[in-house]
Amino acid sequence: MYSTLALTLLAMPLAFAQSSTTNPPLSTLLPQIDAAPSLTPTIYDNSAPDPQRCPGYKASGLTNTSSGFTADLTIAGADCAAFGNDIADLVLEVVYQTKERLNLKVYPKYLSESNITRYTLSPDLVPQPQWDGKTSASSSDLTLKWSNDPSFQFEVSRSSDGEVLFSTYGNVMVYEDQFIEIKTSMVKNYTIYGLAENAHDFLLGDNYTQTFYAVDAGNSIDYNSYGTHPFYQETRYHNGAPTTSHGVYARNAHGQEWLLRDESVTYRTLGGSFDMYFLSGQKSDGSSSALQTITQYQTGCVGTPAMQQFWTYGFHQLRWGYQNISIMEGVVQGYKDANIPLECLWNDLDIYDNYQDFTDASLTFPAGPFRAWIESLHANNMYYVPIIDSNIYVPDPNNASDAYPPYSRGAALGTYIRDPSTGQFYIGDGWPGFSVWADWLVPTSQQWWTNETSSYHEIIPFDGIWIDLSEASSFCVGSCGNGRTTENPVHPPFTLPGDVLTFDYNYPEGFNVSNATEASLAASAASSQASAVSANPPLPAATTTTQGRTTPTPGVRNLDFPPYVINNVQAGHALVKGAIAPTATHNDPSNTTEYEMHNLFGLQISNATYNALLEIFPGRRPFTVGRSTFASSGRTTSHWGGDNTSTWGSMFLSISQAFTMMMAGIPMFGADTCGFAHNTDYELCSRWMELSAFFPFYRNHNVKAAISQEAYRWSSVAEASRRAMSVRYSLLNYMYTLFYHAHTSGDTVMRALAWEFPEDQTLAGTYAQFLLGPSLLVTPVLEPNVDYVKGVFPGIGQGTRWYDWYTLDEVTGVQPQENVTMSAPLEHINVHVRGGAILPLQEPTLTTTATRNSSYSILVALDGQGAASGDLYLDDGYSLVPNATKIVTFSYSDSCLKTSINGTYHSTPPLANITIAGVGKAPCGLSLTIAGQECEVGAVVLSHLNETVSITGLEAFTGEGAWQGEMELILQY
């Protein structure tokens, strides 16, 4: 949904008219916060203190342990107070946790029950990697050395070759109550990736600052965004020698910044501790790789991603603006009439009474008819997902008709975050008006949340839940609703799409070329609307803060305005803008503040929703989609890229976003296809529907102030969608198997070319192309008004073969690293199969259920040695712990295709055909053995055309299921 900032951006260059409301806008009622001397974020403030002038620490009292060592750290000079109050006495812990992972912790020596949460992150909130009970310094891939000259400094290197991976030598460690800093030297022109979530180039570069503070700001390019994943992976190129790779994870949830500079990376947070994990990236053979590093992060640090239900890989349709059941019925019919697959319908806030969670808009979505309509979806093997916002409406206490039981039940349990100035609940502002937020540190919050979602499911039989505004977002500064709940419901302090004179006339780049007449009409309409708005001024801007950097005060912490100003995208860079104030308190024994917890809200509500769905659907994998995420969120939720725009740039950046989410362990990721804000057009939407068909999560979503953008609205988009979805749905089992490996082994689903071809340095920053798993190369069109696309074929000329998906013609005549021009008419996306792959396919249909029941085929794409391999994972598609599973492993060599089978799951569709690409010589016959029995193959049709062998008519031997017995097929010459 729209953020406050996104709404402001949407109004440019147009202005919005004031909407009607019985209450004055919040912006006229909230106090303005006094200005401080500086509004500049610290990274741009030349007058800010240099923390590297602090004295650092000296280590003493070293004690060796079976897993590493501990020591005391004592400040090595006068207090610095750069951005907080210095902590004089610290504890250092170094643990060689596993062969590939080394942990270094630094935290205050004197922790009490009242302040422990300020500095340590509980393993109950975020997984805390542990020692494996056997690794020591002598058996580790990594070596840590340290020095006290002139102050404590350390470096981590790879034991096998001495390569330094992380070094603070020449820099000081800074540890204050509101600021910690550690700085590592980097090699020249380093290549690091990750630090999700960001909308930025895939290769982060050496002139970039990644700010982490979960923020409700759409399309936040080069600024902080919804998620916090403080993990990076570095690849080093060695002039033709094999690349090396390693990773660094900093387990800290405070607001923070990573300063990527010419030859250094500086890690700064607004508090907490150093809890650093260094990953060797090494494999069993001693080499290291980016993919191995990412696997080590997921399997060893944050946990592997949840396995998703099979149906979730279908196509999803959503819009903010589906205003009644009849419109929803029309959308379903529109897709059916256009013969475009549709798996799941979603609703935005339109379904709720005055935007209040768990209610029904009785005039437009009455509960009975709405339930009946959802059940009709289920009857046709389709699904339904509603939005649930993270804030809970507070009813007017003087108005009995405004009763809101979800709030009252939570209030009775004391489950909401509190305002420290009053001790009462913290009341901010959200879509329905003044609102509160759950305190997930209180165990009763899970009980309450489960009850509310379960009760809602009894009325509306949803199949998953979409969690929004989970940063958590508040539309005002501070606890603005305290003493004012009698004014509820209040309109948000800004105009909304759909209010009077708010239609969006922005169109994508190139629209004036492809649609010159419409572009002219839109410009004229925009001008007329702007004139009308100027005669009827819009709501005043919501109150912001202008408070900047503050001065550390001995014994006092300034939480709302800390001395270090992170480059938060919100107005004034303030932490109090657009979010629950940092001073808000929780109900745990330590009265933990939002200052510590802010970045964790999205993780916590996703976990709570996951647990609630387990109660609603016992034994079934919960399907949740969350906006704000933190390290380890992938264990319980999927994610979408948030409030993007209908621009070619947003589409392009969605690929790098996807890569970073793959690294973060949240592979079920997708962007709002065709764009959320502004208007799309037929060209952009065609290209985007094609691109997103190869993202794991595939959903079209836009705002109600713009034109409709369902895929059937334009004939060209409909055709592009049908063609791309035909490829996707035939590959559903391939994608599902990729997720099985992600879930069990931490493998990636979408892959950067640099990960699969690490020795080619020219691919280091490439994200205009990507791989789905190791085997499919996708080359989308990412610019307007063209019918071609340029791309490379990595590894070609060095043993790698590529085949066109549609024709199976091998790519030839291409030089290594050549940027090849390929034909790409509007309805076409270029897809190529990598030689050496075996892909299990099924006949694509209009739903995933029908596709799962269609006949199988096998595509074999031979590599340079005439060999290939692959696998297929099968289960019931929904059980958290399936009763039966099956893994089919395929191998091809010496003209022989074999399968091996492990498991008992029974898949009923037959195997219909086998296609083998890259066969130069025509075979004269074949032999086939299934389950040890030789088959009479007289009815099997064998053909050879354009170096492709086709074998059809295999249903006769596999009528009881394709994978009931192991198969051996031999081509005869």
Automatic annotation (TrEMBL):
UniProt region (Disordered), positions on chain: 532-557
Domain Glycoside hydrolase family 31 TIM barrel, first and last residues per copy: 305-738
Range of residues in the leader sequence: 1-17
InterPro entries referenced in this protein's UniProt entry, alphabetically: Gal_mutarotase_sf_dom (IPR011013), GH (IPR017853), Glyco_hydro_31_C (IPR048395), Glyco_hydro_31_CS (IPR030459), Glyco_hydro_31_TIM (IPR000322), Glyco_hydro_b (IPR013780)
GO molecular function: alpha-1,4-glucosidase activity; carbohydrate binding
Catalytic activity line of the entry: Hydrolysis of terminal, non-reducing (1->4)-linked alpha-D-glucose residues with release of alpha-D-glucose
CDD domains according to UniProt: GH31_MGAM_SI_GAA
GO biological process: carbohydrate metabolic process
Keyword Glycoprotein appears in the UniProt entry: yes
Enzyme Commission identifier(s): 3.2.1.20
One Pfam family linked to the record: Glyco_hydro_31_3rd
Enzyme class: hydrolase
Bias (Low complexity): 532-555
Keywords: Glycoprotein, Glycosidase, Hydrolase, Signal
Residue ranges constituting the Glycosyl hydrolase family 31 C-terminal domain according to the UniProt record: 746-839
Family affiliation: Belongs to the glycosyl hydrolase 31 family.
Record's protein name: alpha-glucosidase
Species whose genome carries this gene: Recurvomyces mirabilis
